[in-house]
Design brief:
Bound molecules: iron/sulfur cluster
Radius of gyration: 18 Å
Strand content: 5-15%
Low-confidence stretches: 281-291, 296-314
Helix content: 25-40%
Shape: globular
Mean pLDDT: 89
Strand order of the largest sheet: 1-2-3-4-5-6-7-8-9
Largest sheet: 9 strands, mixed
Number of strands: 9
Structural class: alpha/beta
Distance between the termini: 26 Å
C-alpha cells in the first residue's frame, strides 16, 4: 500500500457524539455507508451526528473494485419493511435536517429496491419537519420504472455516482455501464425538471485529467447540477490500489473546470465524498455557506489535522 502524503493523514478521535451516533445506529439495526464502505470522514461525520443511511441490507450484488461493502449473494436478505420507520427514528433522535439515503445495489430485486427508497422518502416527509432529503441511488439496471418510483417521491436531490471515467469501467465497475449511469441522471431530470441531480467521481484510479474533463462534459450533457470529486483511498485489502495521490491544487483545478462547465455547485477536494454537501461538517468549508468547496481550504484543513495529530501523539 502506498504511503499517504501529509494532506491525507488524519488523527482519529471520536467524541461523545461519535459514540452516541454509532450506538443509535446499532441499536436500531440500521446500516450506514460510512461504516460499510469505511469512509475516511466517519469520525468527523458521526461526531457531528451526521451519517448516510445504507438501506436494503449491507450486502451488495455487484463487485465494484473500489468499494469495501460486502459482496456475498448467498447472504442477501429481503428488505426490512421497518427500515423507513427506523431511519425516521434515527433522524429524529440525531436532530438533523439533512438526510442522505443510499443503498447497496440489489440487482436481485424486481425494482432494484426503488420502492424502498420511495418509502423512506415518504416516511421522512411525513414528519413535517421540512427535512432535506438526498437519495443516492444505484443504476437500477437502467430500469426506467424504478427511476420513476424514486423521482415521484420527490427527494430534494437525486444523486447517482458515475465514480470514474468510461475507460476504467471494466477495471473499476465491471458490472456497470457508464452510459447507463448517465442515463439515470438524464432521465430523472426529464421526469422532473425541478429536481436537483448530482454525481460523484473518485480521482486517483489511473484516469487522465482530460478524461475527468470529458466526464464533466458528459454529466453536463445529462443536465447534472452538482458534482463531487474526491481522492480514491483503498478502503480494503481486496480493493484496487491507489494509482495517484492528487495534490490539493489539482482539486482546485477541477473546481475551476466544474465552474466553467456550468455545474451549479461543485465540491472538489481530497476528502470530499458523494454525500459531501449534505453531510460533511461545515468547518471544512470555513463555516460559510455550502456553495462550493475549494481544496485550498482542504489543504489548510489537512495541515491543521496534521498538527493536531502530532499534538495528539505527544
Ligand atoms: S462523508 Fe458521507 S459516507 Fe463519509 S462518513 Fe460522512 S456521511 Fe458518511
Amino acid at each position: 500500500m502506498k504511503r499517504f502524503p501529509y494532506w491525507l493523514r488524519q488523527s482519529v478521535r471520536g467524541n461523545e457524539n461519535f459514540r452516541g451516533t454509532r450506538e443509535l445506529i446499532s441499536k436500531l439495526g440500521l446500516n450506514t455507508v460510512c461504516q460499510a464502505a469505511r469512509c475516511p470522514n466517519v469520525h468527523d461525520c458521526f461526531s457531528a451526528k451526521r451519517c448516510t443511511f445504507l438501506i436494503l441490507g449491507k450486502i451488495c450484488t455487484r463487485s465494484c473494485r473500489f468499494c469495501a461493502v460486502e459482496k456475498n449473494r448467498l447472504e442477501l436478505k429481503a428488505p426490512d419493511k421497518e427500515e423507513p420507520l427506523k431511519i425516521k427514528e434515527a433522524v429524529e433522535k440525531l436532530g438533523v435536517k439533512n438526510v442522505v439515503i443510499t443503498s447497496v445495489t440489489r440487482d436481485d430485486l424486481a425494482d432494484g429496491g426503488a420502492s424502498c427508497f420511495a418509502d423512506c422518502i415518504n416516511t421522512l416527509k411525513s414528519t413535517g419537519r421540512g427535512l432535506k432529503i438526498e437519495a443516492l441511488v444505484p443504476d437500477f439496471l437502467g430500469n426506467k420504472s424504478s427511476i420513476e418510483k424514486v423521482v415521484s417521491a420527490r427527494p430534494d436531490v437525486l444523486s447517482h455516482n458515475i465514480e470514474t471515467v468510461p475507460r476504467l469501467y471494466g477495471k473499476v465497475r465491471p458490472e456497470s455501464d457508464y452510459n447507463r449511469s448517465l442515463e439515470v441522471l438524464r432521465y430523472a431530470k426529464e421526469l422532473d425538471g425541478g429536481i436537483t441531480t448530482k454525481s460523484g467521481i473518485m480521482a486517483g484510479l489511473g484516469e487522465l485529467r482530460e478524461e475527468i474533463l470529458g466526464a464533466m462534459g458528459d454529466l453536463r450533457k445529462a443536465d447534472c447540477d452538482i458534482i463531487t470529486i474526491g481522492q480514491y483511498l483503498k478502503p480494503d485489502a481486496g480493493c484496487l490500489e491507489v494509482e495517484e495521490f492528487l495534490e490539493p491544487g489539482e482539486f482546485d483545478k477541477f473546481s475551476k473546470w466544474a465552474k466553467e462547465a456550468g455545474f451549479k455547485k461543485y465540491y472538489c477536494g481530497p476528502f470530499v465524498r458523494s454525500s459531501y454537501e449534505f453531510s460533511t461538517p461545515r468547518h471544512r468549508n470555513n463555516g460559510g455557506p455550502l456553495e462550493q468547496y475549494s481544496s485550498s481550504e482542504s489543504l489548510g484543513f489537512a495541515r491543521d489535522k496534521l498538527r493536531e495529530s502530532r499534538r495528539y501523539r505527544r
